[in-house]
Amino acid sequence: METLPVPRTSPVPFHRRLPTLLTLPALLLVLLVALVGALLTAPAAGAAEFRGEDRVVVAADEVVDDDLYVTGETVVVDGTVRGDLLVAGGSVTINGTVEGDLMAAAQTVVIEGTVGDDARVASQVLLLGEQARVTDDLITAGYSLETRPGAEIGGDVLLGAYQALLAGAVDGDVTAGAAALALAGTIGGDVQADVGSADEVGAAWAPTTGVAVPQVDPGLTLTDAARLGGDLSYRSGTEGEIAPGTEIAGEVVYEPVAVEEEAAAPTGALALLIAGLRLFVTLLLVGLLALWLLPRTMTGAAGALRARPWLSLGWGALAIAGTAVAVLAVLVVSILLAIALGWLTLAGLAAAVVAAGVVLDLVLVLGLVLAVALLAPVVVGYTAGGLLLRDTAPQHFGKRVLALALGLLIYVLLRAVPFLGPVVALLVALFGVGALVVWAWDAARRNRARRRADRGGYAGAASGDPQRTGSWQAGPGHTPQAGPQRLGPPSGQPTPGQPLQGHSPERPRAEGSPQQTRPPWSGDGSGRQLPPEPPR
Question: For 348-384, what is each residue's pLDDT tens digit?
Fold first, then answer.
């Protein structure tokens, strides 16, 4: 048996690099999506059987003539399922016979019986016992895969896991991507694997389950009981351990993978300085963009924080907590609607509801993260900088930038203080988000009042009443506050309220009727003025 290393300059065929693509998250997501889609669309067939309880048992003398869809904490199949078995639960045990495909998503899956077709499993632990029979392919993703001596797989094995121990018989090929792979059985075809090495793979967390999990050493290991009918091709940082009694009919091709050493990260004061500098530059760039693109938002939020700090603090806490509750509520509602629409055989609409819920949740989470991590420190820093410069509303852009930089510098320095930094970050997030909420609420109220004033002015113009044109009617007992003096009419013209020359004077107001007053910004019968906007 000769080991032929592959030169680093030679091209590697795509099928040899395929195990690299078999990462656990991708394969697990594919299996879960397929399972959920099948559960949602299955009622359209009208022939499947559905069961959902904490514990679902198919008795030894029970025969299910069609497909079986099961959800439960514990699922045990001792009888016969003549169709496919789709199951999602905590633990799944197959002691009987599944004549069709097996598709399972669970914490632990134990197969001691027979699967007549393919088996697709996403689980932490998958165990094929000594009596297990999988007639066709086995596709699995999880933490651990073990096939014990006596287990038989009639097709190929495609796996992505942290560790795998194949001690049974596989008639086809084995394609694996794992940190630790041990071959201790018979494999009729080729073996192609991407495996880790002891140098780059550390101790992994092992799940606590009711199934015994073997301990497999990192890298590739072939025991004396291993029998390969084809070639062995693997990529790893270290050469595999092949026992002298191993029988390999084909060639052994080993492609070494260079393990790059990571540069030592700076520690101590230097690391603290670099982290603070990155944070300062990031927040300063965001603040400059906000002052350039959203000047009213910055000045308005800063003014709200100065005028009502405690109200901003309360609204910040409510906004953050409310967003978290909204994300959870959208997720729950979308799942419930999708399940209901699936049972009504509206699979397309169910998929649209799920997609809309996911997009809405992503928007909410992204908005909250941006507001807490970027906008809130910028608003608070700009406000604090203006107070330190004794100019709460700087008019020049250069002075605004100076206030922003000064406030952010103080924020970054406080963040670097042990134990005080997290408290400062939390308070800044609450005050900043709350100030944005208060400003947005006030802006919405001002816009609503302005639209009402516009509607009142249009109604007065249509009726021909000069008192209603551009006027604002105050409620009983309301005294208008003094405002900026408005320009009067040109000389020689009567002021509003005086009779025009050649016209009869205005009829006297009836006693007891409410007096109509005008705010300082109301115009006369020839025009209308809007209320003055706050300084930018």
Answer: 787 788 888 888 989 999 989 998 988 999 999 888 8
Indicate the pTM of the whole model. 0.50
What distance in Å separates the CA atoms of residue 301 and residue 519, rounded to the nearest whole number? 26
CA contacts within 13 A on the Cβ side of 33? 9
| Matching residue, tokens 């694996």 | 176
- SS3 of 519, please? coil
d(CA 374, CA 432): 10
Of 264, 248, 266, 254, nearest to 183 (Cα)?
Answer: 248
Of 8-22, 163-177, 182-196, the poorest mean pLDDT is in: 8-22
- Looking at per-residue pLDDT, the higher value among 249 and 398 belongs to 249
Widest Cα–Cα separation across the chain = 124
50 φ, ψ (degrees, to nearest 5):
-120, 140
Distance of CA 134 to the CA centre of its chain: 37
Residue 402 identity (one-letter amino acid) = L
pLDDT in tens, 293-349: 888 888 888 888 889 999 999 999 999 999 999 989 988 888 888 888 777 777 678
| pLDDT at 22 (0 to 100) | 41
DSSP letter, residue 372: I
Residue with the two structure tokens 């113009």: 461
Q: Which is it for strands 157-166 and 174-183: parallel, antiparallel or unpaired?
A: parallel
Structure letter (DSSP) for residue 53:
S
Residue whose C-alpha is closest to residue 123's, from 147, 107, 101: 107
Q: Round the average pLDDT of the chain to a whole number and report it.
A: 78
Residue 160: its pLDDT value, please? 92
Residue 80: pLDDT band (50, 70, 90) is very high
Distance CA 193, CA 254 (A): 10
With contact defined as beta carbons under 8 Å apart, do 439 and 297 qualify? yes
Phi and psi (nearest 5°) for 369?
Answer: -65, -45
In the DSSP assignment, the letter for residue 224 is T
Contact 207, 107 (CB under 8 A): yes
> What are the residues whose beta carbons fall under 8 Å from the beta carbon of 183, sequence distance 6 or more?
166, 174, 191, 220, 221, 222, 223, 226, 228
Strands 3-5 and 252-256: parallel
| Strands of 338-476, DSSP E | none
Structure tokens that stand for 239 in this block: 């050469």
At residue 408, φ and ψ (nearest 5 deg) are -65, -35
Neighbouring C-beta atoms of residue 512, cutoff 10 Å: 5
Residues 6+ apart with CB under 8 A from 528: 457, 469, 470, 522
